[in-house]
Amino acid sequence: MPDGNDLLAFDQVPLNNQLIDFWTLAHFGSGAALGWIMHPLLAIALLTLYEPYEVYILFPFLYENFGIVFGNETYINSVSDIIINTIGVAVGYYSLRKRYPPPFTLFERTTKTR
Ligand SMILES: [Ca+2]
Ligand SMILES: [Ca+2]
Protein backbone atom coordinates (compact mmCIF):
# COMPACT_ATOMS: atom_id res chain seq x y z
CA MET A 1 0.00 0.00 0.00
CA PRO A 2 1.39 3.41 -0.89
CA ASP A 3 1.34 5.99 1.90
CA GLY A 4 -0.06 8.58 -0.48
CA ASN A 5 2.93 10.92 -0.28
CA ASP A 6 5.07 9.26 -2.93
CA LEU A 7 2.32 9.14 -5.58
CA LEU A 8 1.66 11.69 -8.27
CA ALA A 9 -1.85 13.08 -8.36
CA PHE A 10 -3.79 10.71 -10.61
CA ASP A 11 -4.25 13.39 -13.26
CA GLN A 12 -0.44 13.71 -13.45
CA VAL A 13 0.09 10.04 -14.37
CA PRO A 14 1.26 9.71 -18.00
CA LEU A 15 -1.47 8.42 -20.28
CA ASN A 16 -1.17 5.54 -22.71
CA ASN A 17 -1.64 7.03 -26.19
CA GLN A 18 -0.66 3.96 -28.22
CA LEU A 19 -2.92 2.52 -30.90
CA ILE A 20 -1.61 -1.01 -30.37
CA ASP A 21 -0.16 -2.26 -27.10
CA PHE A 22 0.13 -5.31 -24.88
CA TRP A 23 -3.61 -5.16 -24.17
CA THR A 24 -4.64 -5.29 -27.83
CA LEU A 25 -4.54 -9.08 -27.73
CA ALA A 26 -6.72 -9.12 -24.60
CA HIS A 27 -9.27 -6.86 -26.32
CA PHE A 28 -9.34 -9.06 -29.40
CA GLY A 29 -9.66 -12.21 -27.28
CA SER A 30 -12.38 -10.87 -25.00
CA GLY A 31 -14.31 -9.59 -28.05
CA ALA A 32 -14.04 -12.99 -29.73
CA ALA A 33 -15.10 -14.79 -26.53
CA LEU A 34 -18.15 -12.56 -25.98
CA GLY A 35 -19.11 -12.65 -29.67
CA TRP A 36 -18.94 -16.44 -29.44
CA ILE A 37 -21.42 -16.71 -26.56
CA MET A 38 -23.77 -13.71 -26.83
CA HIS A 39 -25.57 -11.47 -29.26
CA PRO A 40 -22.87 -9.44 -31.03
CA LEU A 41 -24.56 -6.08 -30.43
CA LEU A 42 -24.79 -6.79 -26.70
CA ALA A 43 -21.14 -7.85 -26.67
CA ILE A 44 -20.10 -4.63 -28.42
CA ALA A 45 -22.26 -2.55 -26.04
CA LEU A 46 -20.75 -4.18 -22.92
CA LEU A 47 -17.19 -3.84 -24.18
CA THR A 48 -17.76 -0.22 -25.25
CA LEU A 49 -19.30 0.73 -21.88
CA TYR A 50 -16.23 -0.74 -20.18
CA GLU A 51 -14.02 1.98 -21.69
CA PRO A 52 -15.42 5.05 -19.88
CA TYR A 53 -15.71 2.88 -16.73
CA GLU A 54 -12.03 1.99 -17.04
CA VAL A 55 -10.84 5.57 -17.65
CA TYR A 56 -13.11 7.51 -15.26
CA ILE A 57 -13.77 5.05 -12.43
CA LEU A 58 -11.37 2.10 -12.42
CA PHE A 59 -8.14 4.02 -13.06
CA PRO A 60 -8.65 6.71 -10.37
CA PHE A 61 -9.91 4.08 -7.89
CA LEU A 62 -7.02 1.66 -8.39
CA TYR A 63 -4.42 4.41 -8.45
CA GLU A 64 -5.61 6.39 -5.46
CA ASN A 65 -6.34 3.35 -3.28
CA PHE A 66 -3.63 0.90 -4.30
CA GLY A 67 -1.09 2.84 -6.36
CA ILE A 68 -1.89 0.57 -9.32
CA VAL A 69 -1.46 2.25 -12.70
CA PHE A 70 -4.11 0.67 -14.92
CA GLY A 71 -6.55 2.21 -17.40
CA ASN A 72 -4.56 5.46 -17.78
CA GLU A 73 -5.53 5.85 -21.41
CA THR A 74 -6.11 8.61 -23.90
CA TYR A 75 -9.19 8.64 -26.12
CA ILE A 76 -7.00 7.38 -28.97
CA ASN A 77 -6.12 4.27 -26.98
CA SER A 78 -9.73 3.77 -25.83
CA VAL A 79 -11.13 4.13 -29.35
CA SER A 80 -8.50 1.67 -30.58
CA ASP A 81 -9.61 -0.75 -27.82
CA ILE A 82 -13.23 -0.42 -28.97
CA ILE A 83 -12.31 -1.04 -32.62
CA ILE A 84 -10.22 -4.12 -31.70
CA ASN A 85 -13.06 -5.37 -29.44
CA THR A 86 -15.50 -5.01 -32.32
CA ILE A 87 -13.23 -6.92 -34.72
CA GLY A 88 -12.92 -9.63 -32.05
CA VAL A 89 -16.71 -9.81 -31.64
CA ALA A 90 -17.11 -10.16 -35.43
CA VAL A 91 -14.58 -13.02 -35.49
CA GLY A 92 -16.26 -14.69 -32.49
CA TYR A 93 -19.75 -14.35 -33.92
CA TYR A 94 -19.21 -14.96 -37.61
CA SER A 95 -16.31 -17.40 -37.57
CA LEU A 96 -15.68 -19.02 -34.20
CA ARG A 97 -19.35 -19.71 -33.56
CA LYS A 98 -19.81 -21.44 -36.92
CA ARG A 99 -16.79 -23.68 -36.46
CA TYR A 100 -17.20 -24.39 -32.77
CA PRO A 101 -20.76 -24.15 -31.45
CA PRO A 102 -20.65 -22.39 -28.07
CA PRO A 103 -21.51 -24.48 -24.98
CA PHE A 104 -24.18 -21.87 -24.11
CA THR A 105 -25.37 -18.48 -25.28
CA LEU A 106 -26.31 -15.52 -23.12
CA PHE A 107 -29.23 -13.16 -23.72
CA GLU A 108 -29.95 -14.66 -27.08
CA ARG A 109 -32.73 -16.87 -28.36
CA THR A 110 -31.32 -19.79 -30.23
CA THR A 111 -32.26 -19.95 -33.89
CA LYS A 112 -31.19 -23.56 -34.15
CA THR A 113 -33.90 -25.86 -35.48
CA ARG A 114 -33.89 -29.59 -35.11
CA1 LIG B 1 -6.16 0.22 -23.85
CA1 LIG C 1 -9.26 0.65 -22.57
Summarize this entry quickly.
The chain is mainly alpha-helical and 114 residues long. It has three helices and no strands.
Describe the structure in your own words.
It is a single chain. By secondary structure, the protein is an all-alpha fold. The protein has one domain. 58% of the residues lie in helices and 0% in strands. It has 3 helices and no strands. It has helices at residues 24-37, 40-66, 75-99. The longest helix has 27 residues, at 40-66. It is elongated and about 55 Å long. The mean pLDDT is 91. The structure holds calcium ion (2 copies).
Layout of strands and helices, then pairs:
Layout: H1 24-37, H2 40-66, H3 75-99
The structure holds calcium ion (2 copies).
One calcium ion binds next to α2 and α3.
Overall shape: it is: elongated
Give the SSE order as H and E letters: HHH
Query: Could you tell me which ligands this complex binds, including any ions or cofactors?
Result: calcium ion
Structural class: mainly alpha
- What percentage of residues falls in helices of 4 or more residues? 55-70%
Strand runs, count: 0
Radius of gyration: 17 Å
Strand content: under 5%
- Average pLDDT, rounded to a whole number, is 91
What's the end-to-end separation, in Å? Answer: 57 Å
Major sheet details = none
Q: How would you describe this structure in keywords?
A:
114 residues; mainly alpha; binds calcium ion
